[in-house]
Amino acid sequence: MVKLTVITGPMFSGKSEELIRRLKRFQYGKEMIICFKPRIDNRFDVDGIAAKQLDPEKKHFQMTENFPAHSVEHPGEVRLKLSSNHFSVIAFDEAQFFGDWFPGLINSLLDKYKKTDRKITILVAGLDLDAWRRPFGTMPALMAMADEVVKVTAVCFSCGSEANLTQKTGGSKSQIEVGSGDIYEARCRACHTIPDIP
Q1: CATH at residue 104
Q2: pTM score, two decimals?
Q3: Residue 142 belongs to what domain range?
Q4: Which of 52, 80, 113, 166 has its CA 20 to 30 A from that of 189?
Q5: What is the DSSP string of 31-91?
């Protein structure tokens, strides 16, 4: 039996924290866990999923905890790592940065494990929308495939209300630009503005 859970929401909403929380529960249960993250995401920890916390001045995020993860760029790297052991928990962070191959990989894992006697959990965390409020990368397909979708929210950097959008405040006009509080903020719908279209 296999279950796919997708954790999604805007930046600074605690997606990675929620992923780490669930992974720690599986760890306490002595499950065999393997985690992956996109190689492009090297903001806080090259070899791990990082939970971040905002400093009191709201200018810089710092890593508060992490969970070991393999940085990958291609599906073959994932398959190679999965072939070496019988993992019961397979996790992916920052899934919006994976390429078009990613939903196919997840679908193949669901097919592979659907008739197994073991309980297999696949966890995927990533942004649902980009700064232009457009569905981000392969996340819509993953959410459609999921058995469970967990949507988390942040706190608006402008007014303090509940935020479900990501505001781009600097950097380039590219949809895919790795950054943190230096070029992104969480915003509510009332405070969010669309950046210049790239």
Answers
A1: 3.40.50.300
A2: 0.86
A3: 2-152
A4: 52
A5: --EEEEEETT--SS-TTEEEEEEE-TTSS-EEEEEEEE-EEESSHHHHHHHHTTS--SEEE
